[in-house]
Amino acid sequence: MNESRLLDLPEHGPMDTEQIKRMIPHRYPFLLVDRILDWSFEPDRVIRAVKNVTVNEPFFQGHFPDNPVMPGVLIIEAMAQAAGVLGCLHSDGAPGGGLYYLAKIEEARFTRIVVPGDQLLMTVRELKRKRGMGFFEGVAEVDGQRAASCKLVCAGR
């Protein structure tokens, strides 16, 4: 039986915040995925997710107060959280989804700043799985312009 049916999840999207919280353990203020637009497993395992960047994000108080910019590490973390949702979905949406830890970041590039009012569209693709590790590539865009990209390795537990 498909566990995602037990969690009352749609077949391919969209998914709201409450449904996302059933898949990964992150909570405010560290839940950085607001919505899953869609996902697929064929021909590739890929997920598209959204982070709405608002001026009241707690990190903007210190980064930078007079010129708020979303920290690059949080953009990477948002992509890693989307990868965690994809991993859980691929495991048939097992309740709680297990835990995936970010183990490695490679080839991180930041090409556009992300500011309040932006909508970060993230596309994360699973490249392979090997010995409990998931290998992913992610791209984050704002208004069709690449803001960041990286390769991620996540360790399942």
Terminal CA distance reads 23 Å
* Helical run tally: 3
What would you say the CATH architecture is? Roll
Shape: globular
From the 3D structure, determine the CATH topology: Thiol Ester Dehydrase, Chain A
The rounded Rg comes to 15 Å
What is the averaged pLDDT score?
90
Secondary structure: number of strands: 6
> What strand order characterises the main sheet?
1-2-4-5-6-3
**Structurally, how many domains make up the residues?**
1
Q: What structural class do helix, strand and pairing data support?
A: alpha+beta
Please report which band the strand proportion falls in: under 5%, 5-15%, 15-25%, 25-35%, 35-45% or over 45%.
35-45%
CATH first level: which class?
Alpha Beta
CATH homologous superfamily identity: Hotdog Thioesterase
* Unreliable runs: 1-6
Helix content: 10-25%
The topology string of helices and strands comes to HHEEHEEEE
Largest sheet: 6 strands, antiparallel
Question: What characteristics describe this protein?
Answer:
6 strands, single chain, 157 residues, alpha+beta, globular, 3 helices, six-stranded antiparallel β-sheet, Thiol Ester Dehydrase, Chain A
